[in-house]
Specification:
Largest interface: C-D, 41 and 42 residues
CATH superfamily of the largest domain in chain A: Dihydrodipicolinate Reductase, domain 2
InterPro entries (chains A, B, C, D): Gfo/Idh/MocA-like_OxRdtase_N (IPR000683), Gfo/Idh/MocA_oxidoreduct (IPR051317), GFO_IDH_MocA-like_dom (IPR055170), NAD(P)-bd_dom_sf (IPR036291)
Distance between the termini of chain A: 30 Å
Organism (chains A, B, C, D): Rubinisphaera italica
Order of helices and strands of chain A: EHEHHEHEHEHEHHHEEEEEEEHHHE
Number of strands of chain A: 14
GO molecular function (chains A, B, C, D): nucleotide binding; oxidoreductase activity
CATH topology of the largest domain in chain A: Dihydrodipicolinate Reductase, domain 2
Helix content of chain A: 25-40%
Oligomer: homotetramer
Strand order of the largest sheet of chain A: 13-12-11-10-6-9-8-7-14
Protein name (chains A, B, C, D): Putative oxidoreductase YdgJ
Largest sheet of chain A: 9 strands, mixed
EC number (chains A, B, C, D): 1.-.-.-
């Protein structure tokens, strides 16, 4: 487990946007970012409400003077600090509609960004974000955190190496139950903004978790989409956004991908489950039991790959994404931290003035984020047109 | 476990069509039919090849004189036997294209029929079959055998009683891998006819197993369909029929059902898996582990219902569909036999000149079979029209 | 699936002892015995109460004249029938204390016997049974039915072939919950005799299910025991026999086997679970999910062997113990029937005057049954002596 | 998730002993200790080799001046620092034989201690440790980290509240495979000291993991032991300590506990599995799948309790031991951190001069550690005496 940042020889300095009281994902970012002792949280704009922002700082051990009332104040003041003190990156963990202005502000100041997903409010913003990242030369990662699980990376590398043969079918489902009732009518902060089109964007379940399921299928397989037919539903009466949805995606190679997202399935917690069928082998993985993956081949015993950094079957990347030996389960925080960890490698290279990969990154990048926004846009549009087939090729998407 | 047939006080006499060497499902019928000691296999037309038909008889302990060379010969000669000797019912376990002529011949002679699925070659034949059954007054069951599992019946009764609330989503998948290679090019009898449009009908995977998945969703929930959009694929190059398919079905009540059928998923055996989401509870069941079902409700521990005939939570029908106490696993044969068992009840009533239920039967009936054929027809048509929405309301379908 | 009996060319004729109303295992024998169409139930002494015996006959389709009032009457009268009509074998499915007199009576008439387990009331009787079998030359099988599961046989053959290396540890547990309350005080027939020392013998849980767990370990591994230390408890107050017990067994090769049997574990159904550790590989199998077995080897993905008669990894015996393809689950009845099926092979050989294997049989034989009785005797004695080490070597036991 | 330390209003300052290159558990302590942002690692004596100790400091971000060459140097120099700078506690993550001198040195200086398990080299040392802790008034926790899992605490509270009734049986197994080969003959640091009696103590597998399994049974149930009979084996030829062992423990209330520990079971990773049978309910939990626990009751569906801090069924302590909502799996690090977190509460109270609980603590304390050493001592002794029953009552053990 690395703890320094190579020849940089210091911790990276982090600022957090969002994470005030009632927040869920802000705390996750803060915990994941420092798990490997490579970064320290030193500044924050923890709420859009300046008073709340400052009041939340002690809980993160952020000093009073660096607990800012707004993100633009933060960027402005941090940039005036000596180079050896100012922040290296901003983590954006706010409701969706504010991701873009915050990230853009940081990028324009040359600050690296780790941005929550969905990356922006809509696809137009996403395209602007791509331009802003390209212009800035900064490191930009999107927290499609499920890509951080060691066995997800193992699956990706097995597939990209051709071990599964040609991929012909992907079934990626993300099933939850927490919005089974109209929670947004109560005071639940999470439910309130996630079901509000003015904060969440054009999609509900499909924006919040459908994108994860889609991203996982894309990240694991590298398969490229061609067109999509989608069906979104608001199963809970009076809800403004979809809480159940299903997309059929024709892939460029003739394969078929299906994506289901639900927030209304009783008792289902965070059940992201993917199956991939290749001509040579098939595999499946389930987020709630992330330390194992099943690989099947006709005529052979089914194989359970466990997360085992010492096993000969693990790829070097997957092994290096582990922190504990087999049987000592790793989970959500560690996977989240793996998005950070590999973005840190790029940040260190950048800080040292070196080249770093921008498109075919291990972590999800701005192109992945933009593709996710395109997916949402086309799904919502297809659903409105009775499931019409709409194009899904985003030219800048990674292949 | 009942063994007599009530006041009838004798075993029912069975004839088998199909089941000659290389057959799979014929032997299953023969075994399931006698499991409860309520029937005896006394006659057969075991192959379309008369010589093979006769040669196969000893393996079923069918006497030489009742081993017929063809089904029409069988029906004709059996009807000439004294009433106390002649067959009560015919089980049709032949390739799909011959189901209809065989069943029709039996029905016209007033003989009860247990027919394999898909029920006919096409929907037009299915409608003729409905008419033939209605005219005959005979008992007619279709071997949608998965409805015979005790926990499937438990699920059905829990749902119909309203325990799960309004059903809003059904995901029913049937995943296999055995046709991953082009097995039909070798000498494999099963693969040969199941991938041949002239014997199997218009659909491959969707006819063979997609119908089971659809039927299971309909049987469990009673939810009525409105329209279907379907995507069928032949993933194995050169295959004449679909080996992978996916249907989205809008239900009359606004709910959404999705059906996936695959024959090309490496290592997958016979993985029929269904999830049902209601407003009050959700449940899931998996054919390969049929003795348990999971029921979930937000805020409650998840509940594993095991097949336990002595448990207070089992419905009377589900309990009476068991033969063994909990923990003594029951499986495929027993479920298959449960289709027979409950059809026998009707046959006994008929033999005694009494009324018996014809539509809302415990076992799958001719209307279910016809609905399955309509499903195949509309799926194939929708797929040909690029996934166009086509109507799925079959007026005679059970509600 | 064979259905004839080779050159014998007729069904074997079966008589059933036990199986009257309220019986559980009698019906299981009757169903399993005919599953493969190789035998017919033609006679019975279904209860120790002659009236009940005769009244129970119709439920088994046994004719009035062959529904006998007692087992000795049955043996006597059957032996007077012409050779072509009289029974070939008797299945003994009565409470434990009557196994011996019934089996002995049949053996002395030269009739083959399938006997329930535990084989006798005590070990002294078991030794007499061995003598009686040896003298008779008849086929004798004991219904340690769990040996009939295809994957148990697969495990046995993999182990005996050396694939797992030297076996060093066996953990075999059989956990139930049905006697958690003092059911014997109510009218439950099963509980009544199984907790009654005068009918069940010296042990309760250890006699009823501990023997199964022990037998499974012995059958799977072929490892030979040296000595045993045992601890039996009656957890339910006032119960006459043990309902929980644990034995530690030192094996001849230095390995260690532990056996736990419980009837008082809430909600546990019929949970027979075994783990075997070898120097090269380890495996585990669970009766309640009998169609899969896990095989592990350091540094390799864990392997799930499913019951798949067509898979290259299945041994010929294990494959021939299947009736259905993979994914079509087989279960309790089929395993039970596999004890019968392989005993039938021996009966056919005997009927044809040929030699047949008597010690190293596929089915559990009289030596296995006797070893089980020795196990019970030594466990009870050890427990009474505070867990003292007592010898476990039974000289006639199979190696 | 709390991040401050209440009115103390500062992070606690931590020193680490052990954790140099090749160490496994040192890094785990360092990561777990700071997970909740309540402590900072500021000093260390990272190796018994002074040069290696200093060389390892950067990897922990420990400044050069506080990277000490030995634990006594560290304690001496830290105590000379101003009160507002010096360490609050020492984490001892060294091989077993050095736990005691290090901890004693710290305790005598009044420094709190988090000590790895087994707590000492032998039971005599453990008794001295108890005296040292009692004399010091310091907080002392032992890293029986599995007690930190939220569902383990949930189980404990359900059991202590009487929900399971009287506990009659506990089966606690800890199965690993990593020492299947004689790894100590290679250069593997972990294997080397853990199989060396001069560093590990009198027991191998039983000291390393058997104590965890025993502690888990004791912690979950509160049941008190009476006597033990134990069987230890060195399955790998030439190994100095046991690598497989089994203990039978008679509990004071008449219940029976069995403990199995293995390091030689192929492919088994870190499989700590416990089953508890009560008169009213039974439960089971498995460390490798720690976010669920199964609770069973005769006649009821089995219940899967998932780690869900928002569910009404969770006890307040178990809920407060969670950091993430249900379905976002938590694992090894979080459980480990929960030992720290609750010890921190006591440290804060102590720092503020307040009373804190010393015996019935949420975290494992010195009495638990001492009981573990007594368990090891009696197991080793019993095994040497052929499994003789030896007393297991440790008078200071918690009840």
């Amino acid at each position: 487990m690395e703890t320094t940042n190579g020849s940089l020889n210091r911790k990276l300095r982090m600022a957090l946007c969002g994470g005030g009281q009632g927040s869920f994902i802000g705390r996750v970012h803060a915990t994941a970012a420092v798990l490997d002792n490579r970064a320290a949280l030193v500044a924050g704009a923890l709420s859009s409400n300046p008073e709340k922002a400052k009041a939340s700082a002690p809980a993160y051990d952020i000093s009073e003077e660096r607990a800012y009332g707004s993100y633009d104040e933060m960027v402005e003041k941090e940039m005036k600090l000596p180079e050896g003190e100012r922040i290296d990156f901003v983590s954006v963990a706010t409701p969706n509609h504010t991701h873009f202005p915050i990230a853009k502000c940081a990028l324009e100041a040359g600050i690296n960004v780790i941005c929550d997903k969905p990356m922006t409010f809509d696809f137009a913003q996403a395209e602007e974000m791509v331009a802003a990242v390209e212009k800035s030369g900064a490191v930009f990662a999107v927290s499609h955190n499920y890509t951080g699980y060691p066995l997800v990376r193992q699956a990706r590398e097995m597939i990209l190496s051709g071990e599964l043969g040609e991929i012909q079918a992907i079934r990626s489902n993300y099933i939850q139950g927490w919005l089974r009732t109209k929670l947004e009518d109560s005071d639940q902060k999470q439910a309130a903004w996630r079901t509000d089109p003015s904060k969440s964007g054009a999609a509900g379940a499909f924006g919040d978790i459908g994108t994860h399921a889609y991203n996982l299928g894309r990240y694991m397989t590298g398969l490229f989409p061609e067109e999509v037919s989608c069906h979104l539903k608001s199963m809970v009466e009076g809800r403004a956004l979809d809480d159940y949805g299903h997309a059929v995606i024709r892939m460029e190679n003739g394969g078929l991908m299906t994506v289901t997202a639900s927030q209304i399935s009783h008792g289902r917690e965070n059940d992201l489950f993917i199956e991939v069928d290749g001509t040579k082998k098939a595999l499946q993985w389930k987020q709630e039991n992330p330390n194992e993956m099943i690989v099947r081949e006709n005529g052979q015993p089914h194989k359970i790959y466990t997360r085992d950094p010492n096993a000969p079957f693990m790829t070097p990347l997957a092994a290096s994404s582990c922190r504990l030996p087999a049987g000592h389960p790793e989970a959500f925080f560690e996977a989240f931290a793996n998005v950070y960890r590999f973005a840190y490698d790029a940040m260190v290279l950048r800080a040292e003035g070196k080249e770093f990969e921008k498109k075919d990154t291990i972590y999800p990048n701005v192109y992945d984020g933009a593709e996710g926004m395109y997916f949402i846009q086309q799904c919502v549009a297809s659903s409105k047109e009775n499931g019409a087939w709409l194009p899904m090729k985003y030219e800048k998407a990674r292949r």
